[in-house]
Amino acid sequence: MEVAYYPGCTLKTHAKEFEKAALKAYRAIGIELKELDKWYCCGTVYSLAKDNIMYKVASVRNILNAQKEGFDCLIVLCSMCYNTLKQAQEFIKDESNLARIKAFMDEEEYKGIEILHGLELLKDKMEEIKKAVKKPLNRKYAAYYGCTLLRPKSVAIDSYEKPSIMERLIEALGGIAVEWPLKNECCGSYNIITNKEIVVERVRHIIENARQRGAEAIVTSCPLCYFNLKECQKDVKRIYPGFEEMPLYYYTELMNEAFNGKFDKGENNNGS
Amino acid sequence: MLLEKVEEISGENLYACYQCGRCTAGCPMTGEMDLMPNQIILAILRNDESVLDAKTPWVCAQCYQCGVRCPKNVDIAKIMEALREIKLRSNVNYIDLKKINKSYPQIAIVAAMRKFTG
Ligand code: SF4
Ligand code: SF4
After folding, report:
1. Do A271 and B104 touch (CB under 8 A)?
2. B99 in contact with A at a CB cutoff of 8 Å?
3. For A118-151, how does the pLDDT look when each residue is reduced to its tens digit (9 = 90+)?
4. Are A151 and B67 within 8 A, CB to CB?
5. Model-level pTM?
6. Are residues A210 and A178 in the same domain?
7. What is the CA radius of gyration of chain A?
8. CA distance B15 to chain A (A)
9. Is residue B98 part of a domain?
């Protein structure tokens, strides 16, 4: 099965290992992720100002372009891009919004397209996943959803208070998924740029909670959560010398680890 | 008036709020805020312009926890955005672009530029 795939900027730079692992892992269960020929930065965060049409243009262009390339479903891996594109898609479901935004572009009629996060594609593939496992994972993992896969409610890929899709994946791969209350708690997001200290405290709080619940590693699909947790754990350790860092994985990396029997971290880990 | 402006930009009905405080209870950033999310709403309802100088909207991470927990369906994240926008539209940036750490991921940098510059 071939599906259209939108990478976004960060999967081409900071989070190359996420993309690399994804292409391989999805192929192993019969899904070919075909990158769109043409795509732009989605804008990363959805603009919440009702009158700000300009900040929604890039997302809508991406959606219309995917349609133009002949697709009726678009897969997004980066949680932040997913959220932004999906909210833009919700926005243009309203005819008058679509008309307003189309004044800024010369594109064909919008027929409607489905936008799914990569995890949603795995919901009914658990049997295939189990079959592809060569070396079951045997550690305890905390699935960390953060915000953008679950909120606002209109874009939630799963129950927004008690999601379980990543846990089901971890278990299909032979790992143990711990239950923990902070799995849908914000890491501080873009505060990393303006108020890093805030994010450092958030990260300590989140990691300690995962550890208390028995986790040995964190699993995510958000490159910003990944970066913040990775980067700030070093600061946490500086401030609290007894703190032990916890390893982080993209869910696609775990899939490969279980499918191939060896862990292949990819070479890109720049900037952190 | 402040209230009208906030309503216009956010599209939210602030009078729906009955000050139960669930937004504040769920907000992960309250430790860094000078006014709690429910207090922000109350201040805007009173047209108290000093709310524009509060730290709160600038540490709000647009995590949407407040909105999904609000029993009255008030989308507080949109109200925070309106407060930021009112400031940014008067040509005051909250960050100095030259000081951004360029080794950080694009999603962080672009997001900060969108939220903190006009
Ligand atoms: S949760 Fe809703 S109703 Fe309650 S204080 Fe917050 S905004 Fe008001
Ligand atoms: S969106 Fe902002 S105000 Fe609402 S819970 Fe998140 S950080 Fe707090």
Report:
1. yes
2. no
3. 999 999 999 999 999 999 999 999 999 999 999 9
4. yes
5. 0.95
6. yes
7. 19
8. 18
9. no
